[in-house]
Design goal:
By secondary structure, the protein is α/β, with parallel strands linked by helices. The chain has a single domain, classed as Alpha-Beta Complex (Lambda Exonuclease, Chain A), CATH 3.90.320. The chain is built from 8 helices and 8 strands; from the N terminus they run βααααβαββββαββαα. The strands form 2 sheets. The protein has a 5-stranded mixed β-sheet. Strands 1-4-3 form a 3-stranded mixed β-sheet. The longest helix is centred in the first third of the chain and has 20 residues. The radius of gyration is 21 Å and the shape is globular.
């Protein structure tokens, strides 16, 4: 199939090599199969947004902080405060699991040439030996942080995919994961080059029952020779269609 998009990291149905499908690409498929197909088969990606540098800084600092308690095999004070009986999980592959761009934790899906992968923020372990997936989030809002917004379904799916990946790698995983949510405080008189946060740990009980079926649907989509229909309300597809319509009108004028 001809493509005028990028030429690298494209899925080929005839390839025998495993093709990496990230957690975010599964979310893209669920949002709009056409955008997913354009990206993974034809090399036409959605425009990327700006990097979340401050969020990444919070992630890095939290990882360092939890790592200090991991080295001491002690629970983090935030976990004690929230009644979570767990300590940071020490494992030689932890840094690889955190590297979403090059490594991450992955699983080769039987009967396909797909390798599903994802990069976690942290993993804890309870007294039963069950792993607990933890994800760091940063924001700044005047109201209490929660997981109630419609768009946060992406956060929940993210947690469930990580839980699924660890189960597929042979680990016992507790169905309840946690979001360490940092909320920047702006109700101060001065900045003084210091940004303070309130931190809440929000539990989320995940279910990964949907993932195997979605991966099969995604695999069939990648093998299709036809461009899938656009999802209802997809802003990217709506923009492309509107732009093409105007271009056709100008060409006929």
């Amino acid at each position: 199939m001809a493509s005028s998009g990028r030429k690298r990291n494209l899925y080929s149905p005839d390839s025998q090599e495993h093709f990496r499908i990230s957690r975010s690409k599964i979310d893209l498929f669920l949002s709009c199969a056409r955008c997913f197909y354009l990206d993974r088969r034809l090399g036409v990606s959605q425009p990327s947004g700006p990097p979340f540098s401050l969020n990444n800084a919070v992630d890095d600092l939290l990882k360092k902080e939890f790592d200090s308690y991991r080295a001491a095999a002690r629970p983090h004070p935030l976990c004690i405060e929230h009644g979570i009986e767990a300590i940071p999980f020490a494992h030689p592959e932890l840094e690889a699991w955190r590297d979403s761009l090059r490594r991450g934790i992955d699983y080769c899906v039987p009967g396909t040439n797909l390798k599903v992968c994802g990069g976690v923020d942290d993993v804890w372990v309870n007294h039963k030996g069950e792993l607990i997936i933890a994800d760091y989030k940063a924001t700044s809002k005047k109201t209490e942080v929660s997981l109630d917004a419609d768009w946060q379904i992406a956060y929940k799916r993210q947690m469930e995919i990580y839980q699924w990946l660890f189960r597929k790698n042979g680990f016992e995983v507790n169905p309840t994961g946690y979001f360490v949510y940092c909320n920047g405080i702006t109700e101060t008189d001065r900045f003084d080059a210091t940004l303070k946060f309130t931190i809440k740990i929000l539990p989320y009980r995940g279910s990964d029952e949907w993932i195997d079926g979605v991966v099969k649907d995604l695999y069939r989509c990648l093998h299709s020779k036809a461009l899938p229909k656009a999802a209802d309300g997809c802003q990217f597809c709506g923009y492309r269609e509107a732009a093409h319509a105007v271009e056709r009108e100008l060409a006929l004028a």
